Amino acid sequence: MLPAYISHPDCLKHDMGKQHPECPDRIGAIHDMLLMKGLLDCMQTWEAPLATEPQLTQAHAALYVHTMAALSPADGHVQIDPDTSMNCHTWQAALRAAGAAVLATDLVVEGKAASAFCNVRPPGHHAGYREAGGFCFLNNVAVGIRHALGVHGLARVALIDFDVHHGNGSEDIFHDDPRVLMCSIFEDKLYPFSGNLARGPNMVNVGLPARSGGELLRAAVTDRWLPALEAFKPEMVFISAGFDGHREDDMGNLALLEADYAWITQRIVDVARRHAGGRIVSCLEGGYDLSSLARSAAAHVKVLIGADA
Ligand SMILES: [Zn+2]
Fold this sequence. Notes:
With 309 residues, this protein is of the alpha/beta class. Helix content is 38%, strand content 16%.
């Protein structure tokens, strides 16, 4: 039972402008590195389906979904916030990215894949129940989690978010849902400037000061995340996998390395094996320096799938 790799060519068509860091090349950089490392040889490859409206409205307001779909331009760009815009392909790409999380959930829960990695964009963790922003339109991982809870009947799911930015959209969707435990690390005093005051008892938020390296990350995971995860005993684990905390990524000011992403992934795998039958779905979030993004994602996937490559 091979782990799953899920992506779609539509995810490359969403484009927010030539200089925008959330660029289509991110997908290819990760894909090529996984290929080069031999990791894709150890995975089953799937194309992401389009998420359906009933799936999306498990995580977003129906009016929000309709409004975003209607905003989709015939040509040019529609600005959503100063950093986030839609072209004529954005909505289709967003539906694929959310659909990837749904397919990943189905494959893993139904025992057809040991775990899954979704190499998709646009990212999702800044998209709230009724709000887009921060390069995000639909909260992919949240759509997958609500699918696991609602359709597959799981009772407890953990969401791990190690992107350099706080996943304010995910917190918005899950802060009052005790079926979900969200554990996150993020850089303090960085966009979206939230997270220090957790919005619910199911939020384990750990802000790290700028320039923090792997040592502080590992302490946060060991001292804050792992006790909460052990007590919660998740039946499945989702990951918002952002790699913009890497030392070479200018989008944030943390100093993480590939070895830190491998380490944190191993801790997540250990928790999933103890409580969740190893069930993990990981969805790409940030990571904008193409070289360190590709290397970090490969380090993450290698541990996720237990590869010797
Ligand atoms: Zn980020």
